[in-house]
Amino acid sequence: MTLARILRHLLRYSTEFRLGVILLGVVAILAALSFASPYPPLDVYVVAPDVPPSRAHVFGTTSRGQDVFWQLTVAVRNTLLFGIAVAFLSRILSLVIGLISGYKGGWIDRVLMSLNDTFIIIPLFPLLMLFYFVMRDSMTWAMLALIMSFLGWAYDARLIRSVVMSLKRREFTQTGIFSGMTTREILMREHMPHVMPIVFSTTMNNINWSIGLEVTLSVLGFTDNNTPTIGGMIFWANQHSAMVAGVWWWIAFPVAVVVMTFVGLFCLALSMNEYIDPRSRWSRMSGGSA
Amino acid sequence: MQSTRSSFLVAAAIALAFLTVSGPAAAQGAPSNLPRNETLILENPEGTVENAGWFNIWAINAGSQSNGLQQVALDTLWYIDPEHGIDGVWDNSLAAEKPIYNDDFTEMTAKLRRGIYWSDGVEFTAADVIYTVETQIKNGAMRWSAPLALNVAKMEMPDPYTVVFKLKKPNSRFHALFTVRWDAVWIMPKHVFEKVEDPLKFDFNKPVSLGAYVLNSYDPDGKWYIWKLRDDWQRTSLGRFGKPGPRYLAYVDAGPPDKRVIAQMKHELDIIHDVAPEGMFALARQSKTSHGWFKGFPFAHPDPTLVAVIFNTQNELFKNRDVRWALALLIDIKAVAMASYRGAATISAIGVPPTGAHQETYHGPMQDWLKAFEIDTGKRKIKPYDPTIGQQIAEMLRPSMGEQIPTDPKEIAKTFGMGWWKPDPQAAQELLERAGFTKRGNSWDTPDGKSFSVRVVVEGEARPVMARAGSMIVQQWRQFGIDAKIDTAQGTLPTRRSAGDFDTMISWSVETWGGHQDLSFFLDSWHSQFVAPPGSPQPPRNWQRWSNPDLDRIIEQIRSVAFDDPKGIGLGKEYIKLVAREMPTIPLMSYNVFTAMDETYWTGYPSADNPYANPVPNWGNSRYMLVKLKPKG
Amino acid sequence: MSAPLAIRSTPIAQETAPRMPVVSVEGLKAYYRTDHFGVKRLVRAVDDVTFEVRRDEIYGLAGESGAGKTTLTKTLTGAVRPPLQIVGGTIAFSFLPGTQGLHCAPPPEVSRVRWRHLSYIMQGSMSVLNPVRRVRSSFEDFAFRHMELSRRGFDAAVRAHLARMQLEPNVLVAYPHELSGGMRQRISIALATICRPELIIADEPTTAVDVIVQKDVLAMIRSSQKEMGSSVLLVTHDMGVHAYLSDRLGIMHAGRLVEEGRSEEILARPRHPYTRHLISSLLRIGDDTPRRGLEGSPPNLADPPPGCRFHPRCPLAMDVCRREVPPFTVHGPDHRVACFAVTPEARP
Amino acid sequence: MRGYLQYFAKRFGQFLLVVFIGINLAYVITRATPIDPIEQSIALATSFGNSSPEAIDAMRRSLRELYGLTGTPIEQYLIFWRRVATADFGPSLSAFPTPVGALIARALPWTIGLLAVSTLITFALGNLLGGLAGYYQRSRSLKALGIIAIGLHPIPYYIVALVLLIIFGFVWPVLPISGGAAMNLPQGFNAAFLGSVARHSILPALSLILVGLGGWFLGMRSLVSNIVAEDYVVYAELAGVERRRILWSYVMRNALLPQFTGLAMALGGIFNGAIITERVFGYPGVGALLVDAVYAGDYGLVLGVTTMSIVSVSVGVLVIDISYPLLDPRVELK
C-alpha cells in the first residue's frame, strides 16, 4: 500500500485525519495569503494602533500599528517553514540512523542507540538557551533550525529502528537476502514502503515539537526577531503588555492559530499511527483472538 | 462502568483539592501578617535576588543593592536630588555642611552631624568614614576601592566629627564619590566590620543600619525584603524631616510588567518601578487610585538619563561626522516618540537630558542658538532645527488623549520637550554623497563599494521602550535604502557595549545629577585619555569611544572650576554646541520611567506638581519620599 | 471418588438422563462483519451448523484451519464481540436452561456458569497465562470463587489437583515465562479441569507442543474426562488426535458440518470426499506437516462458492453440487453425511 | 539474578554515557559564551553610580584575579571535571563569593517538589483515565476525555502556562500568579507556609499536568485497546474472572509496563517544561536560576545548573530503569 493510497483511505475513513487536514488547510491558506499582504511585515505604525477587530481589520491591529491578520499570515508562514525545515533535516538523520541500526543490529545498533538514548534523555531547553547566548545575532532562523534538527532526531530514529527490526523477521527480507539483494536495495525497495507511514507520522510530531520550541524560545526573546514568527508576535504583544492593556486580539489570534496548527498536525500523526499499528488494526478486524 | 465512575471520583477529588488550597485570592504582593495600612510595598527592579542572604554592599555584586538596603538602611555624606528636593536639591545628610575644598582642590574637609546612631546603638563618627575609605583601599576588589585608592593620599580626624581628606591630585569633584545620585560610597559600620577578618567574604547579615529602617525579615529565595522603622528614627539623618509614614517597607520582585500591573490593580503593590507605556495607560484607565509622575499623560518620570543612538565612532563608517549627521536627519523623532513611548517621551536635541533643572539651565537658553544653527551639506547650508516638534507631538496626541495634553507651551516643553532635528532625506543624501557613499537603485553603498548595512543593538526585554525606539529607527533607515537590522543583545549588552562590539546602539552615555547643572558626572569620563583602543574594553561612559581635542579642553577647564561655580554652565553650553556640530551620539529623549504609585493606602507621593523627590524606588534618593507619605484616611 | 473436591454434579445434571446432551447446537450462523478503512467484508465463518455434545463423551470437531472451528468455539464460549455476530440458530446448555447460549445469557448467569460448568482450553495455550502473574494467582483468579473453600482449603485443593495431573506444586510460584511450553499447556489443562465442569471445550490443545508432550497432554485430557465424567468438545485439525481421543467426530468444511458419526466409523469408512481427503492425509498422531493430494485451498468465506462449498476441489463434483447445498443423509446409526455424490446405498 | 546484574550494568553504562556527553556539550557551549563576567559585574556595579574610568580599569584587574579566570583551556577543563566529580562548582560569579552549590541547593527543592508532584499526578491520572478509556471503549465521557486530551497534548508548555496566567491571574484572579509562597512567611514545616506553597504551586503544576496528561492518556488508551485482545485477557474473560480483577491485574498492570519506560524517556522533556513554567510563574526553582545565570554570564552557575539538571534527569531515568524489573518479571531474560 503506497503512502498516497494510505492517505487517500485515511482521508475517506478517519475522522481525526479529516479534522487534521481541515485545520492545517486553514493554516496553510493563511500562510499562502502572506504573499498578498499589503504591508511590509517588518514595518511598524503602518496602520492605526490598538484597533479592535473590525471590518477594516478582521483581527484588529497591534500596539505597534500592524494589522494582526496580515502579520499573522507572514508569521504562520515563517513558523511553518521553520517546522518543516527542522522536520526535513532531522528526518534524514533519524531515517539513516534508524534504518542502519535497525537493520545492521549488533554493535553498530548498540552504539547508535545509546547515543540516541542520550539525546532523548538530555534536557534540551537549557542547551538551546545556551546556544542562543553563544550565537547572539548570528542565531538566525536558519541557524536555529539547523541546531534543532541536530537535536531532534533521536526519538523518531528509535521508532523507525523498531519498525525495521520487525520487518527484518518477515520472510520477504529473507527472500530478499537469498535473492542476493544488497542491504541498500533491501532497505530502499523492501523496507521503505513500510517505513514511510511511520516517517510521515513522526514528521508531523517533529514539526509540532520544533514549532513548540521555536514559539517558546522566541516568546522568551531568545531568537532573532528580524523574522516575524508566531512566537515573535506573542513576544511583542507581551512587550506591549497587550494582555493587561486589553489588546486581547494581539495574543488571542496567534495563540488560536498556533493551537490549530498543533492539533491539526497531531491529528494527522494520530490517525496515521492508528492506521499503521498492526495490532490495533488487527483488533479492529476481529474484536478478540481470531 | 463502576470503575470509570470511581476514576472520575479520583479526578474530582484532585480538582477539589486544588480549589480548597486555592481559597481566596492571595498573590505574593500581600504580606499576610503585616498591618497593610502601615506597610508600603515597592518593586525592586532587580527581580529575584539569587544571593538573598547577602547584605555586604561593599563587595561587588555579591548581593542585592536596591532591595531597600541602599534606600533605607545605608547613608552617606551628601545627596543631590534629581528633582527639586525637600528643601533644595542639595542635602547634607551625614555631613553637617557642604564639602570644604582648599584653593587648589588637593584637600577636602567634611564636617559630620552629631547624634546620628547605628541601629545597634553605636554612635556614627568620623571613625566610620575613615574606616570605610581605608578598608576599601586595603581590599582592592571592593566596590569603591579603585576610585578611593586613586584619589585619597591620607586622612585626618581632628575631632570625631571632622574628616580631612588629603588628595593625591587636585580634584574639584572628589565629594561626588560621597554624594548620592542613585548611589555613592556608603559608610561602613566600623564596629561591625573590624571584627571580621575578610570583609569580602562577610555577608553582613543581619545588617546594622544607619538609615531610618532595619531589616525585619527577608525571603531566602530572594523575592521579598521587609524593613521596619527604627524606634530611634530621630537619631538618623532622615529624622530632620519628621517621622517616616510607613512602619514597614516591603521591597518585592514584582515579576514581569503584566504581573506588576495586575498586582497594583489588586492594590498589592504600591509603587511599580517601571512598566511598558501600555501598562501605565491601562492602570490609569482601570484604577482610579494609580497615577504616575505626571498626574495624567505622559505619566512617566524623566530620569536624568539621555537615551541616544550611540555610534561606535571607531568604526570606519562612523568616523565621518557627515555620516552621523545624515543618519540623524533620517530619523523622524515624532514616530520614534510614538513607537517607543506612545508619545509619552520628553525629547531632547542636545547632549543633556531634558529633565530636572536642565531645561531651565540649558535647553531653554540655547533655543536661539539652535534655531540659528546651520550645517553644510556640501551643496547648501541648512538649518536642521525645528523648535516646534514638542508642540507637534502634543497636537498629534490631543485628539486621542484630550484634555490630558497640556496647552500652555511651558507645560508642553516640560512634558514633551522642546525641538528636534526635522527629517531631511535630501540633506541626508547630500551628506552621504559628500562622504563618498553612492546610491545604487534603492540601496546605498559605502565608499569601499560594500552595501551600507547598520546593525542597531538594543537590549531587548529588559528595556522594551529602547527596543521599540530602535526598531522604529531601523525602519526609517531601511526605508531610505540602508540595510539596517535590529540586534537584540539581551544579557550580552554590557559586554558588547564595553567591548565596542556594535555599529550603533540604543543606550545612554549621558547621565547627570539632574537637579544640579554640573555635567562632570558623565562628562569627565569622555576625556580622550580614557578612550580604549578598538577591541579592548572601554570604561564607562564614553561608549561611543569618541575623542575630540576641543572636548578635552572643555573637560579640563571644568575640572578646574568648583562644583557650584556658574562658570560650569558656560562650559556645559560649549560642550553642547560641540556635540551638536559633531553628533557623536544622536540624542533622542530622556529615559522616562513609568513609576506607578497607588494611593489606596498611601498619599503624598512626589509628582510633577510636587517634585520634592524622585519616586523611582531603586534610587538611593527615593528615601526622601518616605517622610512625606501619609496613610490614606 | 474420594477427591477432596466438594463439587458434585448439579441438580440439573442429576435428573437428566445419561445420554441427554450437555450442549446442543441448532442451525448456528456466526458471521464476521468487518469495516476497516472502508474495506467492508462479511465472512460466513459458521454457516448453519447443527450438532450436540452428549454427557460423558468426547466430541471431536475436525477440519482444516479456516473451516470455522475456532469461530464455533468462540460462539459456544460466548466470546462474541464485534465484528463477530450470531446471525441465527440456538445453543442450548444443559446447565444453562432457557437461554440461547452464553452470548445472550444474563451476566450473573454467565459468571455462574463459566469455569464451574463450562471451561475452555484455548488455542495456543502458551500465551493464555498472564505473563506478569505467578501461576498460583491464575488459579485463584479462575477457580477460587467457584469452590466454597477457605484460602487454605483452596490451596490444598489446587495442590491435590496438580498432583493428580502429575504436576509439581512448585509450578504455582513460577511465572509463565519460566515454564516450558508443554508445562504451560498442562497447567492450562489443570486450570480448565479444577472445577470439574460438565463441559470442557478444547481448541487445538496440542498444536503448539512437540510430539512427546502431545502424548501425555492427550492422556491427561482423556483421564481427567473419564475421572470426572464430564464432556469434552475437542477441536483440532489433527485427525490423529481425533483417532486417539474422540468418541464421536464432526467434520467441518468452510463453515459447514459435512459429516458426523462415531470416530471409528468415520475413520474406518469415511463417506464425504473431504473426509476421505483428511483421513488419507492422516499418517500418524502428532504429524501435521502440510497435506499433499488434494490441490486448492479452502474457499474464501467472504464470497463462498454457491451450492456445496467443497465442489471446486471435489473429485466427484456434479452439476447439482454447484447449484444446491447438499442436505444430510443418514448412513447408519449416528452417521450422517452432506453430499450428493454419496448415497446411503453407494458403498465405495 | 545474573540476568539482572547484566541488565543493571547496561543501564548504568548508558547513564554514565548520557552524563558524559551531556556535561561536555554544556561545557563546550558555555565556554563559547561571549559574555564576560568581569564586564558584566562592572556594568552592574557602575551602571547607575558615579565611577571614574581609571577606577574601572583597576577594578577590572582585581576582579579578574579574584574570579580566578586564568589557566589554559585544558587546565580549566580538568578543573571543571574535578568540580563535577566533587559536586563543587566553586563560587558563583554573579553572587561572588557564594558557592554555586549553595544557590542550587536553595533552588533545587522547589523544582523537585514541583516536578515530583505534577509528574506523579500526571502519570497516575493520565494512565488511569487512558486505561479506562481503552477498556470501556463505549463510554461517552471517556471518549470526550480523549478528545480533550488530543486537543491539549500537542500544545507547548508556554502557551498553556500563558493561558492559565491570563485566566487565573487576570480574568478570574483567584490564584497567586508568581512566587513560591506568600510574603513574610517564615519557611518551615508549618501549616501556613506549606498551605501557601501548595496554593502558589497550583498554576505551575497545573500547566505541567495539563500538557503532560494527554500523552499518557493516549498512550495508555491505545496500549490497553491492544492488550484487551491478548490471549490471557480473553481467556480470563472466558473464565469469568471478575471484570475489576481483569481490568487492574490483567489489563492495566500489563499496559503500565511500557508506559513506565516511556516515563524514563519523557523526564528530559518534563524538565524543559519546568524551566518554562518556572519562568512564566516566577517560581523560585532551578529553571529561573538557570535563566538568570545565563543573563548574568555566570559560567560557574550556568554550568552548575545545567550539569545538575542533566545528572538529576539521568538519575531519574536510571532509577526508573533499575526499578523496572520489579514490575516486569520477564526483564531478566531480555
Give a quick set of tags describing it.
heterotetramer; B: 633 residues; alpha+beta; four-stranded mixed beta sheet; D: 334 residues; mainly alpha; 0% strand
Short description:
The complex is a heterotetramer of chains A (290), B (633), C (348) and D (334). Chain C is of the alpha/beta class.
Describe this structure in words.
The complex is a heterotetramer of chains A (290), B (633), C (348) and D (334). Chain A has 290 residues and is an all-alpha fold. Chain A has 13 helices and no strands. Chain A is elongated and about 75 Å long. The C terminus of chain A is likely disordered. Chain B has 633 residues and is an alpha+beta fold. In chain B, 30% of the residues lie in helices and 18% in strands. Chain B is built from 19 helices and 27 strands. In chain B, helix 10 packs antiparallel against helix 15 and helix 12 packs across helix 13. With 348 residues, chain C is α/β, with parallel strands linked by helices. Chain C has a single domain, classed as P-loop containing nucleotide triphosphate hydrolases (Rossmann fold). In chain C, helix 6 packs parallel to helix 7. The termini of chain C are far apart. The N terminus of chain C is likely disordered. Chain D has 334 residues and is mainly α. Chains in contact: A-B, A-C, A-D, B-D, C-D.
Strand fraction band of chain B? 15-25%
Residue share in helix of chain B: 25-40%
Average pLDDT value of chain B? 90
Strand content of chain D: under 5%
Distance between the termini of chain D: 12 Å
Q: What characteristic shape of chain B results from the CA principal axes? A: globular
Largest protein-protein interface = B-D, 92 and 87 residues
Q: What structural class results from the helix and strand content of chain B? A: alpha+beta
Largest pleated sheet of chain B: 5 strands, mixed
Helix content of chain D: over 70%
Number of strands of chain B: 27
Report the order of strands and helices of chain D.
HHHHHHHHHHHH
Mean of pLDDT of chain D: 82
Write down the overall geometry of chain D: globular
| Broad structural category of chain D | mainly alpha
Main beta sheet strand tally, sense and closure of chain D:
none
